[in-house]
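Q: I'm writing up a methods section and want to include an example of the input and output format. Could you take the sequence below and give the corresponding predicted structure tokens, formatted cleanly so I can copy it straight into the document?
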Amino acid sequence: MDFPWIILAGIKLHPFWNPSLDHHPGFAGFGQSFSLETPYTVSDMADDLAGLLDSLEIEKTVIAGHSMGGYVALAFAKKYPQRVSGLGLISSQAVADAPDRKEGRYKTAAEVAEKGTVVVAGAMTPKLSADVNVQSIVRAVIEKQTNSGVIGG
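A: Here is the clean output for your methods example:
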């Protein structure tokens, strides 16, 4: 039996997914999705994905998650195992972040609250490509995201 694929992009990179894929949902605060001003969790994002699948009348799917999208894919698989026919992680991990990495995420969130998404754009673009043309495109996409979307509410 064939199942549709859901691709969960790394949070700041949602607009780069290929539209020819079956489904590539955006997270709240990214791309053209609505923005939340209250905190939300990876578990909340998994629930949002379940709601999307319900609205699309998709009972079971293959999910591939890139980076932070991998965390959401894992949360979804844990909460809704009956709805997952396959799971892929791309540049992500199946274990929780180490305390220092988690602290780094909180520090970045505080910096974004103070200075905006330019903080993340400057730090991430050189890690994603050595090509300066690609870097300028990625930087522009990241800088268009909302602060609350990057922070998580």
